[in-house]
Amino acid sequence: MVAVTPSIAFVSLLILLALVAFATEPVPVDITALGVMVALLVVEPVTRQLVAVGLFSTPIVVFSDPTAQGLSGFANAATLTVLAMFVLSEGVQRTGIIQLLGAKISEITEDDETRQLGATIGVVAPISGFINNTAAVAILLPMVTDLAERGGTSPSKLLLPLSYASMFGGMLTLIGTSTNILASELSADLLGRPFGMFEFTALGVVVSVVGVVYLMTVGRRITPERIKPQVDLTEEFEMGNYLTEVVVREDSPLVGQRVGPALSETEFDVDLLQLIRGDRVFLEPLGPKEIQAGDVFALRTDRDTLVELLDVEGLDLLPVRVDEAELEVADEGQNLVEVVVAPGASLVGESLTSVRFRQRYDATVLALRRGGELIRRRMDNIRLRVGDTLLVQATEGSIERLDANRDFIVAQRVERRDFRRSRIFVAIGIVVAVVGLAALNVMPIVVSALAGGLAMVLTGCLKPGEVYDAVQWDVIFLLAGVIPLGIAMQETGAAALVAEFVVASAASLPLVAVLGLFYVVTALLTNIISNNASVVLMIPVAVEAARDPAVGADPFSFIMAVTFAASTAFMTPVGYQTNLFVYGPGGYRFTDYLRVGAPLQLVFAIVTTLGIMVFFPPV
């Protein structure tokens, strides 16, 4: 029986606090992870000082080599491999091959929802096996929304399957998800047995087939149609009562003033979308323009503000219906798009005002959708979250800049001029070489991935400056922060204590049920906190439980159960980044993930557990 020591008590309390912080996100999860790392590093020197002054009897020691082990997350092979995979994914993306594939699929599927759903799942699942599945969804989301629009299908019917299929597709190879790579490194540390490139491909194929069948049958029927199939974005965001046009009267006090101080920078809750002067239409920046009698402004505002504005500013209401067609006459280009706030975006936690969105991007936000909630007034001071979808009015050039900015995902296909299509086969060849070298054990995956990232730059698939933009640094710092926590669990005996408790609770259960229990517990944990954090917490416990004489199983089988469970968080939008990607564009409610994801999670628990018994027998 493992005794509860001060070190175990400290690590256990730290885990509890971390779980609460991961679930509630008072600060971003990567900051929480770094806080965990710092706490593990400072606890020993601080308690030694307390012992010296007589306030503590013994110091709390969590590491045998504090500096090396506490900072090991930054030098860990998993962290470096994930970093390199982001670079490889970006190299493939910059060639535009996914966009070309999307155009071909659109031609084939037309307006048949079954074909659209099949194509969405059939493309994202295999792609997610070879480029990071989060990147795969970010790349394919515009393709799928465009597919839905062209075919008259609700995007809600396609986007949740897109996220789910990317998750089980990521279980086809080692490099499909950062979770796989981290689990492989933990397995190497604890058992001396890392995962091979195609170690669990057979099981991944079985799980993927089951997932595809579910999404094409039961899942298709119960996935809600939150956004009606329609082309007009102003109707989709229910903007009818918030868009209007006004004309400046000759006696208006606005005549001769500049647009900025007269209208844009007032206390009125109003956004200027465009200025129509004779036969010309102007978009942002409108602030410096001088107002003339007869100018027509398209506005986003509410009825109460409009009445006040008409009375005070000498404006007349025009009896016209402002819709997407009306707003897209400028420059004869695409002016109205949905833009999704991406994970790791610099404006997460900021507001449109604090980031000076209008001035920085020469774009106007007409509405904000957060899941099923639509916000069309007083948006300027709302703190933005990952997955928020903004209805944006901008020039074609501004939309291209937004599309090139990693803070955003433009949810419609944008014809980018900077794709390096001459490098398509070079980029694919590099990825194939990375996979092949690791699969044949010519070199470790971390070495081949780093070499592949360098090759992307040397061959011109990526420019040197783009390498840093390619990396999701929040994921890197999350890994660097939580890896030492797993080490601390092992060093202090906290993992062994939890394992004893689990084994005692499941003493009367057969081995397959104990294996399934670890899958279920990990899956539930992953739906609340980060998938990488759940792997770090659960793998040490799973290994200790398997080694317990009462279980006497192969720990590798238990590692597989935790790994698969951590990569399939279907039941909440916060459980996995890809779920957040589609939350706004699909107009989903929180309960939709439970409705569609809970049955799939249950099916996977059974299929994966039985599959592990076949492919990775625990005895």
Structural class determined from secondary elements: alpha+beta
List low-confidence stretches. Answer: none
- Shape assignment: globular
- Taking Cα atoms only, what radius of gyration do you get, to the nearest Å? 27 Å
Distance between the termini: 24 Å
Strand order of the largest sheet: 3-2-4-1-5
User: How much of the sequence is in beta strands?
Assistant: 5-15%
Helix share bin: 55-70%
How many distinct beta strands? 10
Q: State the helix count.
A: 28
Q: Output mean pLDDT.
A: 85
Describe the biggest sheet? 5 strands, antiparallel
Organism: Salinirubrum litoreum
Protein name: SLC13 family permease
Keywords: Membrane, Repeat, Transmembrane, Transmembrane helix, Transport
Membrane topology: Multi-pass membrane protein
How does this model look, in words?
The protein has helices at residues 6-24, 29-52, 66-70, 72-75, 77-94, 97-109, 113-128, 133-151, 156-169, 178-191, 201-216, 218-222, 233-236, 259-264, 303-313, 324-327, 357-361, 396-404, 424-439, 445-458, 464-470, 473-492, 494-505, 511-526, 531-547, 555-566, 577-583, 590-615, and strands at residues 243-248, 271-277, 280-282, 296-300, 315-317, 336-341, 363-370, 373-375, 389-394, 408-410. It has 619 residues and is an alpha+beta fold. Among the domains are: 77-230 and 419-474, no CATH class; 241-321, 2-Layer Sandwich (Alpha-Beta Plaits), CATH 3.30.70.1450; 338-410, Regulator of K+ conductance, C-terminal domain (Alpha-Beta Plaits). The strands form two sheets. A five-stranded antiparallel sheet has the order 3-2-4-1-5, with helices on one face. Strands 8-7-9-6-10 form a five-stranded antiparallel sheet. A hairpin with a 2-residue loop joins strand 2 (271-277) and strand 3. The model has no long low-confidence stretch (mean pLDDT 85).
